[in-house]
Amino acid sequence: DVKVTQSSRYLVKRTGEKVFLECVQDMDHENMFWYRQDPGLGLRLIYFSYDVKMKEKGDIPEGYSVSREKKERFSLILESASTNQTSMYLCASTRADRGGLNEKLFFGSGTQLSVL
Amino acid sequence: AQSVTQLGSHVSVSEGALVLLRCNYSSSVPPYLFWYVQYPNQGLQLLLKYTTGATLVKGINGFEAEFKKSETSFHLTKPSAHMSDAAEYFCAVSLWGYSSASKIIFGSGTRLSIRP
């Protein structure tokens, strides 16, 4: 079975802490994504990566950074967590087709982060 | 700016009635288009997708969607609603980013309720 694994299902952190969310995929996908899901706002793209060490900002990158040192692993970093970063964080991966556009996303099970 | 708009955050229909969930996108070139569904307390799963070719695409559970380039729309329909269709539905597009890599962005979602 293909898999996208997120390291934690639930996480509770304090304001100001540095937070690492890890994501690993076993499908050799080029492209990986971090989204946050909030009621009424859908999924909003934070960052995505299209190759090792290559990244691009999504729609809401402020307060976040990412790291992709190996193809299978994509990490999301909250440099100094704030209460407005309390959310469900979803990692996903996909293969780009020959034309370059992304195909179906494979999602991890999500990390519910609470910042107190 | 590139975007995805889902009209109606909540749609309620009677069991057996037509389901119509609306999605419009803005893009200078035709994107790939997707509908995902999220059942309560579950992850997202792909309902259907349009990449190239036939503009009417069929998905799982009797859903279908039609890509209309002139209207920049990709509305989701099902002829007869079932109680099990109650879920949140997300429209998504695969678009080119600034770095010539492609990204996937989502609409804000439509919650579908089914009345007995």
List the main descriptive attributes of the protein structure presented here.
A: mainly beta; 3-stranded antiparallel sheet; 12 strands; B: 116 residues; mainly beta; 5-stranded antiparallel sheet
Main sheet summary of chain B: 6 strands, mixed
Number of strands of chain A: 12
Q: Name the average pLDDT of chain A.
A: 92
Radius of gyration of chain B: 14 Å
Briefly note the structural class of the backbone of chain B.
Answer: mainly beta
Query: Helix content range of the residues of chain A, please?
Result: under 10%
> Strand count, sense and closure of the main sheet of chain A?
7 strands, mixed
Distance separating the two termini of chain B: 41 Å
Order of helices and strands of chain A: EEEEEEEEEEEE
Multimerization status: heterodimer
Determine the fraction of residues in helical runs of chain B and give it as a percent range: under 10%
Largest inter-chain contact set? A-B, 30 and 29 residues
| Count, helices of chain B | 0
Shape of chain A: globular
Indicate the structural class of chain A: mainly beta
In words, what does this structure look like?
The complex is a heterodimer of chains A (116) and B (116). Chain A has no helices and 12 strands. With 116 residues, chain A is mainly beta. The relative contact order of chain A is 0.32. Chain B is mostly beta strands. Chain B has no helices and 11 strands. In chain B, strands 2, 4, 5, 9, 10 and 11 form a 6-stranded mixed sheet that branches. Chains A and B meet through β5, β6 and β10 of A and β4, β5, β9 and β10 of B.
Summarize the structure.
The complex is a heterodimer of chains A (116) and B (116). Chain A is an all-beta fold and 116 residues long.
Give the topology, please.
The complex is a heterodimer of chains A (116) and B (116).
Chain A: E1 4-6, E2 10-13, E3 19-21, E4 23-25, E5 31-38, E6 42-51, E7 54-57, E8 64-70, E9 73-78, E10 87-94, E11 106-107, E12 111-115
Parallel strand pairs in A: 2-12
Antiparallel strand pairs in A: 1-4, 3-9, 5-6, 5-10, 6-7, 8-9, 10-11, 10-12
Chain B: E1 3-7, E2 10-14, E3 19-26, E4 32-38, E5 44-50, E6 56-58, E7 64-68, E8 73-78, E9 87-96, E10 102-106, E11 110-115
Parallel strand pairs in B: 2-11
Antiparallel strand pairs in B: 1-3, 3-8, 4-5, 4-9, 6-7, 7-8, 9-10, 9-11
